[in-house]
Structure formats: C-alpha cells, structure tokens
Amino acid sequence: QQPVYITEKTEVIIRENTALENAIEKSEKMVIGVRAIAKTGKILEGSGLIITSDGIAVTLAELIPQGSTFYFYIDGKPVSYQILKRDLKENLALVKTGRIDLPTLSFGNLEKIKLGERVFLVGTRAVDELRSSSRFANARVVNEGIIRSFDESRIETNIFEDITLAGSPLFNIEAEVLGINTIDLKGKVITTPISRIKEFIGF
C-alpha cells in the first residue's frame, strides 16, 4: 500500500472548518428571535443579540416599530420584555428580557479586522406554518462569508440573505461579536460595528 500524505493546505482547511463549527456552536446560543405584528397585520421578524447574562439584548429599531405587538424568543420560547430605548438614526433598540443566567461572548476588536477575514452570521427564522401566529419555531440559520470592506460606521461582507435575517449578529471565527446586521433591498448584509453598538448601550 502506498503511504497517504496530507498536505499543509488540507490541514489548514480542516482546522478552519473545525474552528468555524465550534464558533457557531458557541454563538448560536446568543441569538434571540424578534417578531412585531402591526395593527394592519403586517409581520416583521428578525433576530437580536444577547449582550449581558441578566437579559439585556440589542436588535434593530426597524424590527420593533412603535404601535406594534411584540414578541421576543429565547431558545424558541417567548419571554417577557421591556423596551428600554430606541435610536431610529442608528437603527438600534435595547431590550430587557425576562431571562437571567444567559450565555455571553466577547466583543471583537475592530482594530484587528482584516479584509478577507472569514465571518459568519447566526439568525432565527420562523417556519412558514407559524408565521401568522405568536408562536415561534426554534429554527436557526447560519451563513458565512468574508469581509469585503469596513470602516468605523459599517462592515460590508459578501454575504446575501433574506430580509428575515435582519438583526442577526455577525461573528468572527473566534466566536467574537463583530456587530448587528441589516439587510438591504438586494439582500446584501451590512453590519453595524460593535463599537457603535457599545456606544448606544453605554458600555
């Protein structure tokens, strides 16, 4: 039998994939489901990010417009909530959920971001048969890509997604939070950096 050699390139790919899987396993526990039902019956759905272990979370202000009925979900189960503040200009909202002892992750250092760096998002999405109700299926969605460009105000990736993934957090391969995602009309994922979010929260 001929000996089998594993090239260095193959070993690197294997290590990166294992790191990505481990990072996803850690980060998916940080994501909350968000749903708003307007008086007209229109449904908005998206995601948010757990910030502190005592239930503080951040999402997009566009997902919780005033005058709507709101639902927030952790592990697919509805939780009580209090909306602490909205910033329509920054498109951010701060929410206090009724859960404690929640998992948290570190914030990424934007000074260490590199072009082409591997990143991924994790969001929640309702299954079709539950979209018209207050229930929420615990369906998580993951997508990965790379950083195309970035500055102090935004991070652009090569990821495209459905609008229902708005509010999903963006992570690096070390499972550090890089920001919160908005989805434009073409499905392009654009991220509000964690530095802006920390300023909004007051960290």
Summarize the entry for a quick read:
The protein is mostly beta strands. It contains 2 helices and 13 strands; from the N terminus they run αβββββββββββββα. Strand 1 (31-37) and strand 2 (43-50) form a beta hairpin.
Question: Could you walk me through the main structural features you see in this protein, from its secondary elements to its overall organization?
Answer:
It is built from two helices and 13 strands. It has helices at 8-27, 194-201, and strands spanning 31-37, 43-50, 56-59, 69-74, 77-79, 81-87, 92-97, 118-124, 140-150, 155-160, 169-172, 177-183, 188-193. The protein is globular, with a radius of gyration of 18 Å.
Task: Tag the structure with descriptive keywords.
203 residues; globular; 14% helix; 7-stranded antiparallel beta sheet; mainly beta; single chain; 6-stranded antiparallel β-barrel
Topology:
Elements: H1 8-27, E1 31-37, E2 43-50, E3 56-59, E4 69-74, E5 77-79, E6 81-87, E7 92-97, E8 118-124, E9 140-150, E10 155-160, E11 169-172, E12 177-183, E13 188-193, H2 194-201
Antiparallel strand pairs: 1-2, 1-4, 2-3, 3-7, 4-5, 6-7, 8-9, 8-11, 9-10, 10-13, 11-12, 12-13
